[in-house]
Amino acid sequence: MRATTMLCLAGAVGLISGAAQYAYSQSPYVPAAVFCAAGGPTPCATLPAYIGADPMLGNAIGYNGIVAAPPTSAATDSQTPFDNMSWQSFVGLNWMSGAESAPAAKGLALGGSRVWQGWAKVNQVFGNAPVQASCANPSGLPVISIGSDGNGNPSQKNDDYYQASTDVPLIDINGNWTLFERRLNVAEIAYLAAPGGNPLNTLLTVAGQNRFVQGGGTVAFAASSTDPLGARGAMELKIAWRILGATDTAARYITENALLTVAPDLVSGNQPICAAVTLGMVGMHIIQRNPDYAPNAALKPEWIWSTFEHTGNAPLAASACDPAAPVGCVNLNQPSCGAAAAGAAASSYFTPASSAATNTAPTASTTGPGFIWNPSPPYAKAYVQPMTVAGQTVYVGPQVVRCWQIYGLTAQLNAQWQAALATAGSPLANYVLIGTQWGASLDGRTAPYPNDAVPGLLSNATLETYIQNNAQPTASGGVGSCIGCHSAATLADGTTPSDFSFLPGLASPSPARLDFAR
């Protein structure tokens, strides 16, 4: 798989001040970036298997996560080891494949395929949708395939344009749908193919899953080593892309030249879409299966969840909540968290010239596909309104704002990582860690948030736009928490827990989309 990546030194200039749009409380203690799990003063290609030393995790009693007084030293800072692991993973995954031994200035700045682009896509593991567009691809471009079930419904077995949990798309200011792809590593594939070493109980087919359940099996994906430089466990990725237009600065993004294909029954006029596009990454989820490890008693074996966004996605809401003081959040269980903060700049999913509501899902069509593709850009034409801003046409759908501030120490760490990546000349300097969530044994519950997650809620504005404030399932969708949402994951039978992964459900020929609002 090939990717074209463009650099933007100018785009990285001033990025630290740009990151200040995410409000946070200053602390006298400043966390230290650990740029490489293998050691060294600069970012490297090493993918960590586990967090570094975290003394707070030994405190199973009296431990309150980040809802407490700010840490005063590394010894009382539980979050930064997770956040450094997140950044190390994000950088290592986006290193150029085959250039892992090169310094950051080359490994993060060369054109070519990224490490994660060598991982399998879900359709390569579970098979394709019943209907796909048949498109010639003489240039051998990587393909983003939006398949269908043959009845006008997008299938989850290939790439997607429906967000998980809400089954509603996201539209950018170019009037195009945001696109999503999922990948998994070899450790996860090996377990899916033969859980417990038994290929007869494969989780890649419904029949194998039935045998697994009948034999009393419990899904438990391969966990990582407890050594950051040890063997990695199961990992899954979810990437959000937007189609870049003529006015977008491609050099500010991780980009991919791709062939976009869309099944004909999802397109107005019932003709397939076969279009060469330049995609810009706007979001990435990284999840890694961690072990049950006695010295870290406060850390549950419920995966480690990292989520990144492009800094140009969307502004912070004026009433954005603080993850370190969640009890005072005024917008819980509301789809919108109100207007953007004063002075918010135009971004990929927001224009200050519009008064449209924020984080309100587009309205589905009442006939045919709920969200039908226009045959040519703007692909979401039926769901947006054109507007002229500064002599350019933008397409206004629901405006997007971020509902939660970035945790203060995470924001400080982000600034250090962004500066190092800007020095390396990498477009990764234009991305920000929104947060790292992990399952925790907390002493006491911060109602009404999920009891076993730190922070209690964590969402990506491009991947979970409409549920950022959901402390419980609502009419808008599921819980705005990685762990809270994925705790509902099951095998294809809809009842057997699948260890926080929704991927085994893809074994079904027509996997059902979960209705979290029921």
Textual characterization of the structure:
This is Cytochrome c family protein. Keywords: Signal. Residues 1-22 form the signal peptide. It comes from Ancylobacter aquaticus. The chain has nine helices and 13 strands. The model is unreliable at 1-25 (pLDDT under 50). The strands form three sheets. Strands 1, 2, 3, 4, 5, 6, 7, 12 and 13 form a nine-stranded mixed β-sheet that branches. It has a two-stranded parallel ribbon with strand order 8-11. A two-stranded antiparallel sheet has the order 9-10. The chain has one domain. Helix 3 packs parallel to helix 8. Strand 9 and strand 10 form a beta hairpin. The protein has helices spanning 9-12, 15-19, 80-93, 104-107, 122-126, 186-193, 206-214, 408-423, 482-486; strands at 120-121, 143-146, 179-184, 235-243, 255-262, 273-288, 299-310, 316-321, 385-389, 392-396, 402-404, 431-440, 453-454. The protein has 518 residues and is α+β, with helices and mostly antiparallel strands.
